[in-house]
Write a structure and sequence with these properties.
It is a single chain. By secondary structure, the chain is α+β, with helices and mostly antiparallel strands. Helices cover 47% and strands 24% of the residues.
Length: 185
């Protein structure tokens, strides 16, 4: 599994890079999707039950208001959820990545080697190409995903030759996913 090109990327990750990755990963998480869907449905069901009870005991006006709240929740929860998750991940990035924001990172792809080398904050790592799973492209980033589920965040602003960059991974027969139209919802 050798590559037929050499490339070195040297860059600093910004807060927005980490946030974009967290939002992307969340949008692909089955658990997060399931939880968001469940909350969108459960809350209105509870409100409907309360409205039905109020209607049964002749508090019709209050039942209509509660019923309206249930409908509004169902309609507007996706917007609220989008805002709430974004806020959550902003705090997550601030807390968990504060020591990595703005630090220089280097990734070296060597010709005729079976690994890439990374350097960051005094650490050097060699990762065999066979450990990579997929190259994902979104509008502003590439995510180079490992089989372990971890990913390298590579901002497109740091890649000079995008075709050469993608070719590095096609030469490795690595799965490529073009999700340029992905948007946080």
């Amino acid at each position: 599994m050798d590559i037929n090109a050499t490339m070195k990327l040297k860059y600093k990750l910004r807060f927005s890079d980490f946030l974009e990755y967290q939002l992307y990963a969340s949008s692909k998480s089955k658990l997060h999707k399931k939880n968001r869907k469940k909350i969108r449905i459960i809350v209105p069901v509870i409100y409907f039950a309360i409205a039905s009870l109020l209607s049964y005991i002749n508090f019709v006006n209050q039942a209509i208001v509660i019923f309206g709240i249930a409908i509004l929740w169902y309609l507007f929860y996706p917007l609220y959820s989008k805002w709430k998750y974004r806020k959550h991940f902003k705090n997550h990035v601030k807390e968990n990545y504060k020591n990595r924001i703005g630090k220089e990172l280097s990734i070296d792809f060597h010709e005729n080697a079976d690994f890439l080398e990374t350097y960051d904050s005094g650490a050097e790592t060699k990762i065999k190409y066979s450990e990579f799973d997929k190259l994902i492209e979104i509008r502003e980033h590439y995510f180079l995903r490992l089989k372990s589920g971890l990913s390298f965040i590579i901002p497109k602003r740091e890649v000079i030759d995008h075709e050469k960059f993608k070719k590095l991974f096609s030469d490795l027969n690595l799965e490529y996913s073009d999700e340029s139209n992905w948007k946080w919802k």
